[in-house]
Amino acid sequence: EATPERSYQEQLDFLNPIAQPLASRKLTRKLYKCIRKAAKHKQIRRGVKEVQKFINKGEKGITVLAGDTLPIDVYCHIPIMCEDRSLPYAYVPSKSDLGAAASSKRPTCVIMIKPHEEYQEVYDECLKEVSALPLPL
Questions:
Q1: Confidence of residue 2 (pLDDT cuts 50, 70, 90)
Q2: CATH number at residue 66
Q3: Which residues are in the Ribosomal protein eL8/eL30/eS12/Gadd45 domain (predicted)?
Q4: Does some domain include residue 22?
Q5: Strand, helix or coil at 44?
Q6: Which residues, including other chains, have CB under 8 Å from residue 95's CB and lie 6 or more apart?
Q7: Which long-range contacts (CB under 8 A, 24 or more apart) does 10-15 make?
Q8: With contact defined as beta carbons under 8 Å apart, do 38 and 101 qualify?
């Protein structure tokens, strides 16, 4: 497991203004773990276009967005889509860590984790914590 070049605290300096609700350091780790497991079972949707397509199709899952994506116009509509369909979503500080968790060489700004029986326990735990995060007003 590769350690990020910057600590969680340092990554927070690069967040954009819409990165709410932000996952805590502990939840961020759990989400990365869940994403790694989901990636092994090909149960993730990666990238704005793909995630957007599957949200529109009504697919269920946890949407994880990178908080350091600029310009924010690329993906600022995703949280609204999630809220409209009452899908849980959260921001993590770094798009490069998000990409790495999905075992991709490239940074990615949004990932949707689909539920799967192989990692149901981790998924449910993440789902509960992400759903408990306060939504921005």
A1: very low
A2: 3.30.1330.30
A3: 30-122
A4: yes
A5: strand
A6: 66, 68, 69, 107, 108, 109
A7: 11/67, 11/68, 11/93, 11/94, 11/97, 12/93, 14/67, 14/68, 14/93, 14/94, 15/67, 15/68, 15/91, 15/93
A8: no
- pLDDT tens profile 71-98: 888 888 888 888 888 888 888 888 888 8
- Type of residue at 68: D
Is 89 strand, coil or helix? strand
**What is the mean predicted confidence (pLDDT) over 122-131?**
86
Q: In this model, does residue 13 exceed pLDDT 80?
A: no
Nearest to 106 by CA among 118, 93, 116, 97: 97
Quick check: is 125 in a domain?
yes
In the sheet with 62-66, reading across from the earlier edge strand, the strands are 44-46, 110-113, 62-66, 89-92
* Alpha carbons 40 and 33: distance in angstroms, whole number: 11
Range of the domain at 58: 9-132
User: Would residue 1 count as lying in a domain?
Assistant: no
Yes or no: say if 133 and 21 are a contact pair by the CB < 8 Å rule.
yes
When the pLDDT of each residue in the chain is averaged and rounded to a whole number, the result is 84
- Measure the N-to-C terminal CA separation of the chain; round to a whole number of Å: 36
